[in-house]
C-alpha cells in the first residue's frame, strides 16, 4: 500500500467540507482512500492509530489541513493529490478582476451579530473542543444557543448552562441534533405544521418522530426544544429540560407538553416529574427504556414514541387521524406465511439512536432479548458489530460507525453494506430500517436505498427464501424530500412500509413471536429469541 | 442583577450559524434571518485559548462579569487615545539630557533583545552608535565592546521613546520631544537621517554615516530646536497628521504631505530666527529632500498618545507593537510591565531591483506605533498609493481599513478617511478581537536588507504574529482569574 501525505497550511475547513472533498476525489480519481483532517492533536492521534501518520505531518497546526492519500497503485497518488488541492482552492471565494473587493463574511459571533437582523439564536456545530467557547460568547451577546457539537468537556457544559440560566437564555445541547423554535427548523428537523403541542427532548430522532407523528395525526407543534443527551445526567442536572418545561409552560401557544428522553438520572427524573406536575398544562412523559410508570394528575406516561404522540394529540382535544394496529397484524400474518422455519431472528439497522432503543424496549416487553451495540442492559452488548447474533439491533449513528465519516442519515453506505450481509443469513426473519427525512438528512434516501433493498431481496430469493424488509419513514409531506414519494419508491422496491417507528418495532416483534410460536408448535425449544 | 433576556420562544427567531452549513438549511428555507459565519478556530487554534478568550467577552446584560469590566477599561483607554493632543514642543540636544543616568546605554527598536540575538542591521547600528559615541575607535573594537557586556541595551519603548528601523538611540543623539498636552507625558524619537542606504537606522556604520549623525547633532538639531521655540505653543501634530491623511499619506510609510506641511510650519520660524542663512538652508534642504522626514514626529505623536493609554487595569488594548528584527513584541494597557513576543515575518511587497525576499530582514522598527494608534495600515484607505507596494488596487486599500475595524474598539474622529465617507480610522487594537477574528493587525513597513548597512531594499505590508495576542489573552485571563 503506497501512502502520500502533505499539508495545506493555514486554511481551516470544517470536517464536512473535508469529507466532501475526500468523496469527490475518490469518485473522480478512483484512488482507494483519501483522508483529510485538520492538524489537531486528536486528529494526529487518529492518523497514528490508523497507521497513516508520517513525519511530514508532524508539523501540521490546527489551522492546517493534513492530506493523506493511499492506494495500491502509487501512480494514482499524485493525480489524487492534485485533485484535492484544486478542490480545496476551488471552494475559495473568487473576486472578479476590477470588481470592488467584497466584504468577507463575518468570522466571529460578535461580527455576525453586528450585521444580523436582531439575532437571538446561535446554531453551533463547530468541533467539540471549541464549541463551548463559542456558546459562551453567544450567550454574552444575548443569544440562545443550539449546540449541535458533541465531545464538549463536561465542566464547560456546566459553565455555559450556569451562565445561560443566570441570563434566562436557553442552551440546547451539547449533542443536540434537532429543534424547532418559532417554526424555524434547526439542525436535523422535519417541516411540520405549527400547532399547540410543545416538545422537550433529550433525543434527536425521538423528537423528530414525535413531531412527524403529531403532524400525521393532523396536529402541529408549537416549539420543539432539544436538550442534548447529557442534559439529563446528574452532572448537568437537567437544567435545559427544566428550563424548556418552564418556557413551554409560559408559552401561550402551547396547550400540551410532551417530553421524550432516555431515562434521566434518578434525581433529575424526580425533579422533571415534580416540575411537570406543577405547570398547569397536560404533560406526556416518555422516558424511553425506563421502568413503566403510572400516570398521575396532569402527568401522563407513555412507553413509546407513537404512544407519546397519540396521547399528546388526544390531550390537545383532537381526534387521532390514523392507527397502524390493524395494518401491523395483517403485515405480520402475510410475512410469516412466506417465511421458512429457519427464519426466526430480527435485525434492526437504525440510523436513529432513539429508534434503536425503542425497538429494544418494545421487544423486551414482549420477552424478546436482542443484542445491540447500544444495549438497554450491559449484558446484551453485541461483542462484534460486524457479526449479528440472534436478534440484533444496531445503532449506526454510534461512534464506532461515525468517526471520520458522515452520519448514517446522510451517508447510507455502511447501512447498505450491512443490509446485504444480513440478506445472506438464512436465520433472518426480517430487517427493520428507518429512513429519516427532513433538513440535514440525505436529500433523496430512497433513491439510494431502494436498489439496495431490491438487491438484498433478490439475493435471499436466489437462496430460496423471502427477505422481508420493514421500513418506516420519519418525515412529512412538507419535508424537502416529501414522505409520500419516498415511501412509494421504497414500496416499489418491495419494502414493507409501516407508518411509525413504534409500528415498525411492533410489526417485527409480532413476526418474531409468531415464528417462535411456530417453532414451539413443532416441538422444538420454546425460548423466544434464544439461540444455541 | 442581570436583566432577564426575552424568552427564546417569544422573540422572532433570527439565527447566527457557525460550523457545518447543512445544519442551517432548515433555517434558510423557513425564511428566518440567517447569518452564516466563516468560522475557524480562534487564535492559534488551541481549544484552551478559545475557552480563555470566551471568559473575557463583555456582556451588556451583566456589568459584573469580567468581560464587561474589560470593556469599561477599554472605554477609558479609547477616551485617552481620542483626547490626546500631541504637540511638538522641543528638540533635546542630546538624549542624555532627558535621561542623565544613561551612561553606556543604547536604546533599540522592538522588545528586549541581547546583543548575541540581534539581527545583522541592528548589530551594525550598534557598532555605528559606539563609533559615533567614541566608545571604540574601530568596528572590531565596537563589536568586542558590545559582546563583552560593556553596553546596556534597552527597548526605546521602555523609555518613552520610539526609533525607526533598528531604532538605535545613543546618549549624544538629539531627539524630537512631543508632549501630550492632555496628560502632560512626553515622547521622544531620533531624527530621520538622510542618505538612503547609508544610514544607521539600516545598520550602516561607514564614516559618512557617522558624519551624517554629527550633522544632525550639530546643525539640524539646534536649528529645529530654535524653530520650534519660535512657534508659540509648539506645533500641534494631530491637525497636521489629520490633514496629511486627506492628502494621501498614511503617516507611516508615506509622509510626503506631512513632511511638506512640516516644512511650511518651520520655514517662517527659521527665517525669523537669528540662525545663519547657511544653516537654515542646510536644514530646509534636508527636510525637503526626504519624503519620510516627518515619520519621527508621527511616531513620537503616536507614542505620546499610546503611553497615556497604557496602564489602565484590565484593559485589553494594545499600547505598543514593535519589532526588533527577530521578534515582534506587543504591550497591553492592562498588563503593565510585560512584553508578548512572537517571531517577526518578512514583509510582503515590492523589492528594489536586484533584491529579493532572500535578502530581506524580518520585520523591524518601532514605527508600528502608528498602526497601534490607528494610523499606518489602519488608515490605508487614505493612502491608496501605498497598496502599489503589494500589487493591490485602491479597493484593497479600503479593505485594509475596513478589516482593521474588526480588531479595534473604536474610530478616531480626528483622523477621517475621505474614501470611506469620512468615517474615522479604526483605532484601539483589542487583543480579544484579534484572537477572536483570527485577524492579525496589518503594518505598513519598509523592508531592510538582512546584512548591516545595505539599507532599504523594498516596502510592503506585514502582519504582527498571532502568538503575541494569544499569549496576551492567556495572560489577561490568568491575571483576571486571580
Gist of the model:
The complex is a heterodimer of chains A (532) and B (482). Chain A has 532 residues and is an alpha/beta fold.
What does this structure look like?
The complex is a heterodimer of chains A (532) and B (482). Chain A has 532 residues and is α/β, with parallel strands linked by helices. Chain A folds into four domains: 2-90, Gyrase A, domain 2; 107-175, Rossmann fold, CATH 3.40.50.720; 177-322, 3-Layer(aba) Sandwich (Rossmann fold); 325-521, Succinyl-CoA synthetase domains (Rossmann fold), CATH 3.40.50. Chain A contains 17 helices and 19 strands. In chain A, α15 links the parallel β17 and β18. In chain A, α15 (445-462) packs parallel to α16 (483-492). The two termini of chain A are 41 Å apart. Chain B has three domains: 1-38, no CATH class; 86-299, Enterococcus faecalis V583 fold (Alpha-Beta Complex), CATH 3.90.1710; 310-481, Alpha-Beta Complex (v583 fold). Helices cover 36% and strands 19% of the residues of chain B. Chain B has a four-stranded antiparallel β-sheet with strand order 7-6-3-8. In chain B, strands 11-10-9-13 form a four-stranded antiparallel β-sheet. Chains A and B meet through α4, β4, α5, α6 and β8 of A and β1, α1, α2 and α13 of B.
Distance between the amino and carboxyl termini of chain A? 41 Å
**Strand arrangement across the biggest beta sheet of chain B:** 7-6-3-8
* CA-atom Rg of chain B in angstroms: 23 Å
CATH class placement of the largest domain in chain A? Alpha Beta
Query: What's the structural domain tally of chain A?
Result: 4
Strand content of chain A: 15-25%
* Quantity of strands of chain A, as a count: 19
Helix amount of chain A: 40-55%
Overall mean confidence score, pLDDT of chain B: 94
In CATH terms, the superfamily of the largest domain in chain A is Succinyl-CoA synthetase domains
Largest interface: A-B, 77 and 67 residues
- Number of structural units classed as domains of chain B: 3
Q: Whole-number average pLDDT of chain A?
A: 90
